[in-house]
Amino acid sequence: AELSLSKLGVYKNIFSGVGIVQDHSPNQKDKYYQSFPIQVIKKYRQLHSIELGNWWGGKSLEEEWKLSSPDEPFILHIGEGTDSKTAGEFSLAKEYGMLQENVIFVHAISFTKSEIAECAKNGVSICWCPTSNLNLIGRTLDVETAIKEDINLIVGTDSSFSGSLNLFRELKLIHKLYPNIKSNVLFKFIYENPLKAFF
């Protein structure tokens, strides 16, 4: 029997381990999101990164942060590198008052152990994208410290150009690199923790 494109989309995302996604910029019309066979999160503020700003649409860091509210996620790519400028991004985010429970830091490669601990203490979530990190930077988040500090860690794929095609492949890499992370913990990274971060 033939399958409609919408059904194929549903099956593809079931096989990819994803039922809800977050688009990079919530600037599309409702009709665009309604055509998706899966749920697209719409209530959030974001900035691509401190270095690049909102180069694909949106306002400046100052404006986006000012417009954000504690009851919606604020997403920021941060610490995506190993240079001194990237290493200073945590301090800048802290100056803005971003160490809050509604904040999701993506990557955090450059974060030190004490910075990760500070994020955990303040309820900040970190989105870990190991495949993309290793492909682009050759290094990833200090995940052992993140787990030790009991941070709200979630797994993402980043861009399909640099990261995995789906979460299952991402989990396969994590299991290969970090075999000591138990399956029930990995499950939290893709289910319980994202729910806590986004809803």
Describe it:
This protein starts with a helix and ends with a helix. It has eleven helices and seven strands. It is globular. It has 199 residues and is an alpha/beta fold. It is 41% helix and 15% strand. The strands form two sheets. Strands 3-4-5-6-7 form a five-stranded parallel beta sheet, sandwiched between helices.
Based on secondary structure, the structural category is alpha/beta
Strand content range: 5-15%
Q: What proportion of the residues is helical, as a percent range? A: 40-55%
Give the number of helices: 11
Task: Please provide the count of β strands.
Answer: 7
Q: What's the average pLDDT? A: 86
Major sheet: arrangement of strands: 3-4-5-6-7
Biggest β-sheet strands, sense, barrel: 5 strands, parallel
Rg, nearest Å: 17 Å
String of helices and strands:
HEHEEHEHHEHEHHEHHH
Shape: globular
First-residue to last-residue Cα separation: 38 Å
Assembly status: single chain
Are there runs of 5+ residues with pLDDT below 50, and where? 1-12
At a glance:
41% of the residues lie in helices and 15% in strands.
Topology:
Elements (H helix, E strand, L loop, with lengths): L4 H11 L4 E3 L7 H5 L4 E3 L3 E5 L11 H7 L6 E5 L5 H4 L1 H7 L7 E5 L5 H9 L3 E4 L1 H7 L6 H6 L3 E4 L11 H11 L5 H8 L1 H7 L1
Parallel strand pairs: 1-2, 3-4, 4-5, 5-6, 6-7
